[in-house]
Specification:
Shape: globular
Distance between the termini: 21 Å
Helix content: 10-25%
Order of helices and strands: EEEEEEHEEHEH
CATH class of the largest domain: Alpha Beta
Largest sheet: 6 strands, antiparallel
CATH superfamily of the largest domain: Fe-S cluster assembly (FSCA)
Structural class: alpha+beta
Amino acid sequence: MAQDTVILTRSVDAVQIPSGAPIRLEKDRPVVITQSLGGAYTLLYDSRCLVRLDAKDADAIGQVPPATGSSSEPTPGAHVDEEMVYSQLRQVFDPEIPVNIVDLGLIYDCQVLPREEGTFAVVVKMTLTAPGCGMGVVIARDAESRIRQIPNVTEARVELVWDPPWNPSMISEQGKMQLGLV
C-alpha cells in the first residue's frame, strides 16, 4: 500500500509499536498509513510514533471496517480442521512486518479439539520474532479473534511460547519472497 496521509476524523485508542503501550490518537491530527494488512492498520502518528489501529476503528482514518463473519450458533455436522485454522491465521500480521504470522514461522502447533454438540476448541502455540516484543498480546488476541470466526469454534486460545527460539530460517518460502529474501 502506498503511504497515504489522512486526518483523523475522531479521537481513537491505538497501541504503540513495538512497546504495546496504549495511546490516544487525537481528532484532526494527520497520520500516515504505512501498512494495511489483515484488517488492522499501522500508522505513523505525529511524524515519530508507529501505532497499530484496530480494524473496528478504520472509519477514523476514512477506511471501511472489514466485515467479520462469526457464527454464534453451531452448524450441525460442520467440521473444523487445521487447514481452516491456518487459513484464518494467514490473515493475522505483525504490524511491523508485511508477512502473515504463518509464513513468518511463528505458529508452532495447532490443535483442533472436538467439544460437545459438534463444537470445537482450538489451541495454538505461537512465538514472536523477539521475546521482548510488546505486541505479542495484541497479535495473539488478533489470532484468537480470527479463529473464533470459524463456524462451530466456540473456544480459541493462543499460547505464547519461546522454545524453540524463532529465527529467520523459520520463514516460509512465500514469506521470504514477500520480504525479498529470495
